[in-house]
């Protein structure tokens, strides 16, 4: 037996230097990473053109128009200037849902805004949205045009204009619940898109700290939704509302594996109630149509860069 103990002792001694070497190597790697990642902010930040990332060529720390560029105007009551990003899809889905229910006043022209080439900084677009973000809506159905910008504001404006997909004032508790979830999306999605999506998919290189930080938050958000949807069909019980329309293009697309190539990384399949909800919504014909509008990439048969009538979405 003492032979076994002696052998174990010698093995431990032989493994110890290797263990120490590996520990030292790991420490060195951490130090290297730390040195490379160390950033000492200056007293006053200044912008550097080409400031890394996929959108470096259009990002600047200033607002306002960069070029004179008028916007086109179609024949319909609603003029939408957008792109089929998650925020843009919210509005086209809403409009297609309204049209599917016979609200003819929701007829719209959808014009493509190419954010990669800087259309959002044209003077015409900035006149509608001084924040230079899609989507932007111009309602020309009345005597004076009404501009509406920010996707959540557009959804709320359309819901109130057509009295649809938002509980009425006679249902104050349900209406408050719907609006709470609508604004939950507004406050939560920046962590998914500008946080996780940027550092996981668009940053010049992958850094563990921000990816871990935002992955943790996105998974927490998915858990919030999963618990909410565990015992109800939609976010506001059995009512399909602007809360679902707002949240689906971000979190529904995420669990369906359509955002950032991160489905496995985030283990989205484990959020089975969100998955069930997303699969039901994506099967809606109006959602399928709305997701194609202002889409200029992907399979040709799914692209509808501009929409001016139902015939444009074959």
Structural commentary:
It is a single chain. With 314 residues, this protein is mainly α. Among the domains are: 78-165 and 304-312, Glutaredoxin, CATH 3.40.30.10; 172-283, Glutathione S-transferase Yfyf (Class Pi), Chain A, domain 2, CATH 1.20.1050.10. It contains nine helices and four strands, in the order H-E-H-E-H-E-E-H-H-H-H-H-H. Helix 2 links the parallel strand 1 and strand 2. Helix 2 crosses helix 7. The radius of gyration is 25 Å and the shape is globular.
What's the main sheet like? 4 strands, mixed
Rg, alpha carbons: 25 Å
Overall pLDDT: 90
- Global morphology: globular
Strand order of the largest sheet: 2-1-3-4
Alpha-carbon distance between the termini?
81 Å
Strand tally is 4
Query: Which stretches are low in confidence, meaning pLDDT under 50 for 5 or more residues running?
Result: 1-19, 24-35
Q: Structural class, from secondary structure content?
A: mainly alpha
Order of helices and strands: HEHEHEEHHHHHH
Estimate percent helicity.
40-55%
Beta content? 5-15%
The CATH C-level name of the domain at 172-283 is: Mainly Alpha
Number of H- or I-type helical stretches: 9
- The CATH topology name of the domain at 172-283 reads Glutathione S-transferase Yfyf (Class Pi), Chain A, domain 2
Name given to the CATH architecture of the domain at 172-283? Up-down Bundle
